[in-house]
Amino acid sequence: MGLDCSHDAFHGAYSAFNRFRQVVAHAMGGSFPPHWKVHPSGELVLDDRGLPIYDESLDDKMIYYDTDGITPEQGPGLWLFLRHSDCDGEISPEDCRKVADEMEAILPDIEKAGEGGGHIAARGGFGEVARKFIRGCREAAANNEPLEFY
Asked: pTM (2 decimals)?
């Protein structure tokens, strides 16, 4: 059981989709819950097993934007992507274009997150997962169809 999206945009565990959104938020200059600790250099703070350490000082009900990152006004497609339900609903064809364009613009920063683990690693890492999501959004928009989450 997990999240499936139409147009082959994403198939995997809910936890994998959440980790993907965390990476997208980090690439935007922000933080998505549960929040990772980040060095001033932009690198994740890892524990002795190489896993990210979570910043418990940030509210897990909030999405944060860094002052140097992309704001909701600057990135309405990514803002929608971060706030969207992870188990149902849809993104309109018009919003799919925004999501694809904005995600593509930060793809180099998404790729820096590396392979990930679990379903992310099995699908080629965060960069490949992002490229597949972008392709799914572009296909949905080209067909004037919503990207569906189920």
From this structure: 0.85
